[in-house]
Amino acid sequence: MEYLERRVALVEDRIETVIDEAEPEELSDELGHVVLAGGKRVRPAVTILACEAFDGDPEDAVDFAAGIEFVHNASLVIDDIIDRSAVRRGTASAWAEFGYGPAIVTSDGLLGEAFALFSTDDRAMRTVAEAMVELGEGEATELAARPTTEAEYMDLARRKTGALFRAAAELGAVAGDADPNAVESFGEYAERVGVAFQMRDDVLDATADADDLGKPTGQDAEMDRPSVVQVTSLSPEEINDRAREQSELALEALDDANPPETEAIEYLRDLAEFVVVRER
């Protein structure tokens, strides 16, 4: 774990620097409240590992990794407003702490800082812009045309969660100067990991203890949100099996890139297996 912790620490340092330099001080405080409250840092870890899988220097991917974490957190701020969720990661959500207006400004600030970090590379900008389109369409679909079948749910999960995972891996592969086919394979790997992550998240919302999870549970049912539990008649065990299928397809996509056997690749394989058994 020390190997991965050192790489995540690089991202954490960059995140803190960007937040400290944000102006005015009130915005910096609000950004810190959201981003520094915790989080698994899964997406930035994927970015760093994908870069190293192609023999890239982790330092070359740090800005992209920090940027994708800012984008992710910006989306969470808006999710909490939509859901009226007052708790995030065991602490007050942005709107509950600062009010709706400042929370929206915080989300905007996070996106601004993110795109400043991506702006040094046209490929990075294009990658994240495409992910943002998918994310926006997914959020709109959830509100306006909720899925009613498993297939429609899977498409929603791909857009709402898988897209940012895809971007995280593709950003790392770009930083590692991978060829286009390898970038695409790593993107598919991460998108499927993201879908599996979302399915497991839905199961945890329905079955886990709120204190253990670090956020309110039962939100999907309370908000009548189209989780896989709400949309289908699948049992939690069957949903976990579906998530495991996505994990296996993710591993196949990773192998299609034919990467050298490195510690980074081993961690990416472990991640695909971890997301379907995690308890938080």
TrEMBL record:
<dbReference type="GO" id="GO:0046872">
    <property type="term" value="F:metal ion binding"/>
</dbReference>
<dbReference type="GO" id="GO:0004337">
    <property type="term" value="F:(2E,6E)-farnesyl diphosphate synthase activity"/>
</dbReference>
<dbReference type="InterPro" id="IPR033749">
    <property type="entry name" value="Polyprenyl_synt_CS"/>
</dbReference>
<keyword id="KW-0808">Transferase</keyword>
<keyword id="KW-0414">Isoprene biosynthesis</keyword>
<keyword id="KW-0460">Magnesium</keyword>
<dbReference type="GO" id="GO:0004311">
    <property type="term" value="F:geranylgeranyl diphosphate synthase activity"/>
</dbReference>
<comment type="similarity">
    <text>Belongs to the FPP/GGPP synthase family.</text>
</comment>
<dbReference type="Pfam" id="PF00348">
    <property type="entry name" value="polyprenyl_synt"/>
</dbReference>
<protein>
    <submittedName>
        <fullName>Geranylgeranyl diphosphate synthase type I</fullName>
        <ecNumber>2.5.1.1</ecNumber>
        <ecNumber>2.5.1.10</ecNumber>
        <ecNumber>2.5.1.29</ecNumber>
    </submittedName>
</protein>
<dbReference type="InterPro" id="IPR008949">
    <property type="entry name" value="Isoprenoid_synthase_dom_sf"/>
</dbReference>
<dbReference type="InterPro" id="IPR000092">
    <property type="entry name" value="Polyprenyl_synt"/>
</dbReference>
<keyword id="KW-0479">Metal-binding</keyword>
<dbReference type="GO" id="GO:0004161">
    <property type="term" value="F:dimethylallyltranstransferase activity"/>
</dbReference>
<dbReference type="GO" id="GO:0008299">
    <property type="term" value="P:isoprenoid biosynthetic process"/>
</dbReference>
